[in-house]
Fold this sequence. Notes:
Helices cover about 75% and strands about 0% of the residues. The chain is mainly alpha-helical. It has one domain. The longest helix has about 55 residues, at about 60-115. It is rod-shaped, with a radius of gyration of 31 Å.
Amino acid sequence: MKQTGIFREELPGEKKSIVNLLMTGYIVTISCLGYAAFYIFIQMGQLERIVNTINPQTQTAEQMEVIKKRMTRSTEQLRNEMMGLAILGSLMSIIGGIYTINLVVRPLRKIIEYTEKDGKTILPEFKTNNEIKQLASAISALLLRSTQPAAKTDAEQTARAEK
């Protein structure tokens, strides 16, 4: 990889892209939702088999009670497991939100603060070489370039005034 002022050589195993991290989160979420849909499909198939065995003309009250208990147990199990998946999904969403805030929102706020002060404060250090660090480096270089010509022209004007 060609070395430039903005980019640096990546460390082994280092993830460079925020988009890749976010897409990984989406893939995990979609996989969990797929598992939940498959599980509901299986449970509904069990309930359908139980309902198909119901025949009030040929079954006794005891048999009907057994079928009722099986259906109740199956629906309770399904309800409990779906509640568990909903809680797990909520926790994953909260963790993903916190991760996104720490990975994207806070660094962008630091860059905005740095830019609003025209680079007169210290540029915050970013530990990973992702798009945020590259943006910060580019803004820092741009602010440096924009302040250097002004300093040169001031020096030239004072030199001319002295002559």
